[in-house]
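Quick note —
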Amino acid sequence: MPVLDEAPQVAARLAALQGMRAMGVELVVADGGSVDATVAAIGTLADRVIAAPRGRASQMNAGAAASRGRVLLFLHADTCLPDSALAEILAAIGGGSDWGRFDVRIDGRPALLHVVAFMMNWRSRLTGIATGDQAIFVRREAFERIGGYPDLPLMEDIAMSAALLRQSRPACLRKTVVTSGRRWERHGVLRTILLMWWLRAAFFFGADPRRLAQHYGYRPRAG
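Predicted structure written out below.
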């Protein structure tokens, strides 16, 4: 789990994962330099808390390197897993899949968020490309074979999915994870849809990911 200034919610998110942890799942949190009480709020709710250069890609790569499991699950701090997540992942991997993702539901008041989630799931199932909000899981061997997440400030999930897709199709699980709609609500659903379409198109045609990250509202680290 990559985190950055998630003190208000990180303890609740990690508490929800303690059942999986009790079944032997190793929980690694990669902090990107939080300046709030995120690390203190984690306490004993994770097996390891590591410091990593800011950015989801670099944080998730660092978390993967610090972990010992044969299967990796990358979970955003604002995303909740279904109760059956572990069984679903093990069934998919046991059935021969090298990687996969869940369907997603976006939590929020605007009704249009349900349409957005439906389109995300439909597009992912059609193209084989997954987003980080869908809780991507992957065999360690497959993850290491492609070199992990490309160290991009944005679209790292799209780039990694494309690399994995060149090896095999993902398992597209219909069980849903629930992700926060806070960004959609803050900036407006339609505006965010149009921005994401533009960012994806620009990325596809070779635009600088650092500039795209700035348009999205991220502050890429220096260097």
